[in-house]
Amino acid sequence: MRILKNEDIKNYVNYKIGGKTDCLIIVEDEKEIVDAVGLGKKSGRFFILGGGTNVLFTDKDFKGTIIKIGLKDIKKQEDGLFVSSGVLMVDLLNFCLEKGLSGLEWAGGLPGTVGGAIRGNAGAFGGEIKDLVLSVKSLAFEGGGPITKNRNIKECLFGYRDSIFKHSDEIILGATLKLKNRDKKKIEKEIEGHILYRKEHQPLEYPSAGSTFKNIPVSSVSKKVYEEFKSVIKKDPFPIIPVAAVLDKLGFKGKQIGGAQISEKHPNFFINKNNASFGDVIGLINLAKEKALEKYGVVLKEEIEIVNF
Asked: Any idea which residues carry the catalytic annotation?
């Protein structure tokens, strides 16, 4: 366990936005998590942080403890592959490539950790992490003491970029995944293809939290909106209208407030172009939501987690 005082939160998140925290604890096993939560409770409040890739923090200081999950195990088991929540997706993909294990090719270039991917049911190119999960191991604090849970796929309540872990205080420890054997060269080719696509279509050169909004289910829009966007409808994994297409039609490419900008390359990426503040990004988010509702009757829902202490 590493305990760091008066740390800059922005150094631990992709957006590079955030104030300071009184205490940041990096934990590497289950016992350390329990101990860190105990310290966090004594400090008044605590926040669990994974890879920091899909989160926007306020500029305000956090008077409490941030616990960063650093569990890194990858173990083959009889029923599948157990992967700890702190394992980076890129490291898991490299492991799968080395062992000839297939199923995660769609995650080529996906940032963040396995725990974050499970919590938000990450997906891309028609795949979702839920399609590979056999069970998820988590830690809950009920009745004052820690309880280890093993949730099966149904108990995880996976939805579109959603799971039960987004709506509870459980801390994801890891998951058992079902993967298949496949030729390594085919795995590598598919992964590299997705990485190349991201480089070509996403503004990876700037800090951001990835896709700001969830894509829009076709079933939720009017016939008029459907007709206007039917040429760009795709499966993700069900029929959706890309938010990027809606924001493009609204003329928001390149729209800037302070140091934050709606990317000209991919309008669903709200980038930290020049020392953006929390307020700059929130201003763009609120503007996009307001205009999408006004013009198309569409309610945009954030895919990123906004943390405003």
From this structure: 161, 211, 303
